[in-house]
Amino acid sequence: MTAAILTVWTDIPTDIESDFNDWYNREHLPDRILRMPGFVQGRRYVAISGAPKFLTLYDLESSDVMLSDAHVALRRQRTARDLLFVPRFQNTIKGICDVVCRVGEGEGGMLIVAPLVAHTGREAGFSRWVCHDLLPELMRARGVACATYATRNTGVMKASSAKDDRAGDRYLENLLVIEATDEGGVKTATRCLDTGRFESAGGGLHLLAAPCVLRILYTLRAGAAGGG
């Protein structure tokens, strides 16, 4: 059961992109998914439109996984390649968010991601609108497999991320993730994400000017012998 989502969304210099992907798939992801209690799966995506270019979504049993002794120990045991790549992340967006609502049980090979923020004093109403109106509408759209809305766990985020801050790192408030099976699903879902509707409901896009569309790059699940 996924109760929380850890998000790491970043650009990387093009001259080390191939080595970065090899490190992420062979070392960074397995160190968490295969060896860290509470990590359910990790999925890496690459942007088709929008930026940053590379997104990793980690499904967690709880946000508190990020404060476990095992995770704290892992962060202290950085490898040579960790120390090479992590400081070179660029335009990074991070978040530890608790899942508020989800519709659909499937997974799609394409993703629409929209960082959101609720206006002050309208947080509860905005969350209700997303969960009770927007997500069911998205699931009625052909080609949409799943949609999830999650909100920032501020306490865990501050405690967990302080050691990795880079100049310019940004932090999610709320996160809308829509999984689609094809380009038609992406187009249909994107039409539901009108900025005027967000504003009327008491919120709007945050950090990005428009939702980002990505495709799956690599998946690794806990208990698996490998990824694909």
Describe the fold and architecture.
This protein is an alpha+beta fold and 228 residues long. It has one domain: Alpha-Beta Plaits (2-Layer Sandwich). The chain contains 7 helices and 10 strands. Strands 1-3-2-10-5-8-6-4 form an 8-stranded antiparallel beta barrel, surrounded by 4 helices. Strand 2 (39-49) and strand 3 form a beta hairpin. The mean pLDDT is 94.
Order of helices and strands, N to C? EHEEHHEEHEHEEHHEE
Quote the average pLDDT. 94
Shape: globular
Oligomeric state of the chains in view: single chain
Spell out the key features of this protein.
single chain, 228 residues, 8-stranded antiparallel β-barrel, 7 helices, globular
List the helices and strands and how they pair.
Blueprint: E1 4-11, H1 17-33, E2 39-49, E3 54-60, H2 69-76, H3 80-85, E4 90-103, E5 110-118, H4 123-139, E6 144-152, H5 154-161, E7 170-171, E8 174-180, H6 183-191, H7 195-201, E9 203-205, E10 212-221
Parallel strand pairs: 4-7
Antiparallel strand pairs: 1-3, 1-4, 2-3, 2-10, 4-6, 5-8, 5-9, 5-10, 6-8
Short recap of the structure:
By secondary structure, the protein is α+β, with helices and mostly antiparallel strands.
